[in-house]
Every structure is written in structure tokens, then in C-alpha cells.
């Protein structure tokens, strides 16, 4: 029937509820280019700038890793178990210009942001919108 058999996925994610996300190499390439454009465009980041990601292991975690490599941005990963004090310390020590977190973790992350003089942009991963935060899904 002339159809190509789909290539092995470049990315295959399954959560505890059995939800799946599969990206081909082409899709991962395209999505990571778009995400890199979000970081350098809407978030105003340049090569060498640092970004802190406080995210659970959602597909966007890997997508942002690849996007940062593409854009020459340094990704500092943080787990969702970080305390406000941990996040505050990392922001100051790294001089990160952007913080990325999930809609559910945003309120906790937000509490430490007023003290951070280097931060330029805040990016949220997930459904919810939040005042003063950019939404990755909308921007992609």
C-alpha cells in the first residue's frame, strides 16, 4: 500500500496512568526548534544564559533539554522536591535569567522570585495560565 512503516520513535514517554507520548525524530526536531525559538524569542534568552527548570519528568523536560542545546542555553535541572530555599539559592548562585516550572509547582516557585534580580522571564509547562508567566504550550 506504499505507506512507510513508522520509524522507531526518538522519544517514548509513558506515565503511571498509562498515558503515552511518542515523538518521531522529525517531530522531536521540529518541536525542539520551536521550543528553542520560544526561549530565545519570548523569553529573551541568548547563548550562554542560564535557565532553571523545576519540573517533574514530563515530556517537556526532555524537549527543553534538547531546545537548550540547540539555542546554546545552559539548562540547570531541578527536581520538583526542591524547597523554596533550594530554588532561591540556585537562582542567585547561577544568575539564571529564566525559570521554568509546571502549573502545579508555580505557586511555590513564585514565593522565592521577588529576591531574584537576574530573572527576566518565567515559563510555565502545563494547562493553566498564570499572571506574569508565559505558557510553553501556547507559545509552541
TrEMBL record:
It catalyses: a medium-chain fatty acid + ATP + CoA = a medium-chain fatty acyl-CoA + AMP + diphosphate. The keyword Metal-binding does not apply. GO terms for biological process: acyl-CoA metabolic process; fatty acid biosynthetic process. Residues 3-127 form the AMP-dependent synthetase/ligase domain. InterPro entries: AMP-dep_synth/lig_dom, ANL_N_sf, Mitochondrial_ACSM. The keyword Metal-binding does not apply. Gene3D superfamilies: N-terminal domain of ligase-like (3.40.50.12780). Its EC number is 6.2.1.2. One of its GO terms (molecular function) is ATP binding. Keywords: ATP-binding, Fatty acid metabolism, Ligase, Lipid metabolism, Nucleotide-binding. GO terms for cellular component: mitochondrial matrix. Belongs to the ATP-dependent AMP-binding enzyme family. This is medium-chain acyl-CoA ligase. It comes from Cinclus mexicanus.
Amino acid at each position: 500500500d506504499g505507506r512507510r512503516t513508522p520509524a522507531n520513535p526518538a522519544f517514548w514517554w509513558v506515565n503511571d496512568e498509562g498515558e503515552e507520548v511518542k515523538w518521531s525524530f522529525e517531530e522531536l526536531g521540529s518541536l525542539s526548534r520551536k521550543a528553542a525559538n520560544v526561549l530565545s524569542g519570548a523569553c529573551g534568552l541568548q547563548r550562554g544564559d542560564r535557565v532553571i527548570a523545576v519540573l517533574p519528568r514530563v515530556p517537556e523536560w526532555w524537549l527543553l533539554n534538547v531546545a537548550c542545546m540547540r539555542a546554546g542555553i545552559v539548562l540547570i535541572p531541578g527536581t520538583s522536591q526542591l524547597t523554596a530555599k533550594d530554588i532561591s539559592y540556585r537562582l542567585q548562585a547561577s544568575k539564571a535569567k529564566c525559570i521554568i516550572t509546571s502549573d502545579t509547582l508555580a505557586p511555590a516557585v513564585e514565593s522565592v522570585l521577588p529576591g531574584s534580580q537576574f530573572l527576566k522571564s518565567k515559563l510555565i509547562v502545563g494547562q493553566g495560565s498564570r499572571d506574569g508567566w508565559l505558557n510553553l504550550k501556547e507559545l509552541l
